[in-house]
Design goal:
Elements: E1 6-10, E2 16-20, E3 30-33, H1 39-50, E4 54-59, H2 66-74, E5 78-81, H3 89-100, E6 105-108, H4 123-151, E7 155-158, H5 172-182
Parallel strand pairs: 3-4, 3-6, 4-5, 6-7
Antiparallel strand pairs: 1-2
Helix pairs in contact: 3-4, 4-5
Protein name: Retinol dehydrogenase
Organism: Lachnellula willkommii
InterPro entries: NAD(P)-bd_dom_sf, SDR_fam, SDR_oxidoreductase
């Protein structure tokens, strides 16, 4: 028996869009999820595999989370090293596709939050946050869209944050990076 997985997207106006895997019950799709070391990414990878879909779960450094990587592989998934902010992201994604096949669903989940007053933040920390939360997902999209177009289908999910429309003190750069992702 397959379990159900529904992705729900909402914005500040509370409008929502959902993608339910029940619609694709007879279709097995290949998902690639970034940022699976813990939290939402890891839970999403578990749910994808439980629903009978294929999942490539990624993290910057799988050696830091060997139990998560082992669990995903035990559930039938693939764990791959992928740093969303790395300059070689597009070529690394190409290697993953060459080895494991076309990505049907890309989930840009990896995120990074450095907080504090803007005037005290180092430019490097600001750049790192923008690379991880905005430019990395853009490069990932650019890497997978050509094969999605060639196949005539594909889904891209960008995990953002309510912080982009309801920012808190000390989160200006994080909020800006998530606002940029929302486009």
């Amino acid at each position: 028996m397959q379990s159900s997985l529904t992705l729900l997207s909402s914005n500040k106006d509370t409008s929502a869009t959902s993608l339910s895997l029940d619609t694709y019950e007879s279709t097995t799709m290949q998902w690639l999820v970034t940022g699976c070391s813990s939290g939402l990414g890891l839970e999403l990878a578990r749910a994808i595999l439980a629903s009978g879909q294929q999942c490539i779960a990624t993290s910057r450094n799988p050696s830091k989370t060997p139990s998560a990587a082992a669990e995903i592989e035990r559930l039938g998934g693939i764990w791959a090293a992928l740093d969303i902010a790395a300059p070689d992201l597009e070529s690394r994604l190409g290697e993953i596709v060459d080895k494991h096949g076309t990505i049907d669903v890309l989930v840009n989940n990896a995120g990074y939050a450095a907080g504090g007053p803007l005037e005290t933040m180092e430019i490097e920390a600001i750049q790192s946050q923008m690379e991880t939360n905005f430019l990395g997902p853009i490069r990932a999209i650019k890497a997978v869209v050509p094969s999605m177009r060639e196949n005539g289908s594909g889904v891209i999910v960008n995990v953002s944050s309510a912080e982009y429309w309801d920012p808190h003190a000390g989160c200006s750069v994080y909020s800006a990076s998530k606002f940029a992702l929302e486009g």
